[in-house]
Amino acid sequence: MALDFLILYEHIVREYESITLLKRELERRGYTAEIRQLLDRKKLKYFTWKKPKVLVASAMYDDKTMNSFVYNNVGVCNKVVNLHWEQVLSEEQENSPFFNCGQSASYAMHTCWGTQARDRIVKYGVPIENTAITGPIQMDFLRDQFAGYYKPKAELCKEFGLDENKKLVLYISSFSTAYMTDQEVEELNKLAGVGFDQFKITSQKTMNTTLGWVDEYLQTEEGQQIEFVYRRHPSEWNSPILEKMAAKHKNFHLITDYSVKQWITAADTIFSWMSTSIAEIYFAKKSCFVLRPYPIEWEYDPVVYKDCDHIDNYDDFVKCFGIENPKFPIDEQLMLSHYDFTDTPSYIRMADVLEKVLLEDEGDRKPFDHFKPKFSWLKFFSLIGLHAMYAIRLDPGKMKMFGPLSTWAGRIYGHIKNTRVSPEKQQEYMDNIKKFM
Prior knowledge:
By secondary structure, the protein is an alpha/beta fold. 40% of the residues lie in helices and 11% in strands. The strands form 2 sheets. The chain has a 6-stranded parallel β-sheet, with helices on both faces. Strands 9-8-7-10-11 form a 5-stranded parallel β-sheet. The longest helix is centred in the middle third of the chain and has 22 residues, at 197-218.
C-alpha cells in the first residue's frame, strides 16, 4: 500500500522532535507517515509498493536537491513539500539564487515561518501559490500546551552529573566552519554559491577568543561555581580546542543530547554568537548575551542580528554572570517579522498544508518535467557499504592507507553515526509528544 507522507530529515537536534510532532498530527488525521534520514540506505519499497504520495524534504534549493532528496530516495514524485529549515539567513545568502528555491525546486510547496521568507522566495520567482506561511513548528514546544515537555533543570543536571545548585550556563555554538579543512570549505563554496573562506577565519578567531574568555573565567573562584555547557553546532564535530577545554576543566561540558530548546529552558545564563536559535530563546521568554569580539562580515551575519547589543571584551563577559533578566539583545519587531507566531500551533498549520498538497490535483506541480533526473548508483552502493561498516562499528576514516577516500568515507560514516535514531528512541520521542496532544 502506498504511503501518504515520507518525511526526510538532516539533523536530529534541529528537526527530529518537530517532524515527530508533525507525523503524530498526520496520523491523528488518519494518514500514514514515516520518517527517514537523508543518508539512510535507499530502499526498493519507497520506489514501488510503498512509494509516498507526498515527499516532505528538509530543504529544497534547486535541481540538485530535487534530484538528491526526491529522485534518489523515491523516484519521480511530483508532490514535494519543503520544510525549509534554513530561513533566517545573512544578507548575502538572501540574495543568492541557491537559497531562494529556484529551478525545479520552485514547483514544490514551500512552508515559511513568516512573511520575510515568503516574500523573499516569491521575489526570486517561486509562485506565491507554492508558498504557505505556517509559523515555526519548532517553537510549538515552547507554547503553554507543551508546558512540562522539557525536563526541569534539576532532572537534566542529575542525568548528566551536573550540580543543580550551581548556575547552569549555556554557550550555543555556530562554529561549524571553524575547523573545516580547506577542501571542505571549497566544497561548501561550490554547493552554496557563497564564499565561506573569510567566514572560516572569523569563526575560528571568535571561537578561540571566546573560549579563551571561558578558560580564564573557569579558573577563577566564581567560575568554579558554575556548570558550563558548550552546545556544538550540528555540523561541528572536529574542533580539537573543545576536547582540550573539557580535559582541563571539570565543569566544562560537551553535551549534544537533546534539542537546543531543552537546554535553553533549563539554563540560567545563555551565550550566543550568531545562532538563529536566538529565536528559541525569545519564544522561551528568556534572554541571552551575544559574544562578538570581532565584527562579523555582513555577508555572513543573520539579518535578525542587525544592530544587536553584544559583548566584545573579557571584562564585560565576566559581568554577564551577575546580570539577572538582561535586556533582549536584538530588535523584537525584526524577530516577529521572521516568525509568524499565532494562536494556532504551527504543527496544525503545517499539517493543513501537507493535507492540501496530498488531496489536490497535481496540476502544474511537475518538477521533473523541467530537468532530467539522474539516479546515483555510487551513492546507492556507498551507503550500503557504509551502513554495513557502521553495523560492525568499523570506521573507514581510520583506514589511512586509502588516503582521500578514507577521509571522505569517514566523514559520511560520521554523519550516519551522528544522525541515526534507534527504534527505541523513535518510540520515546513519539510517546513523549503524545502526552501533550
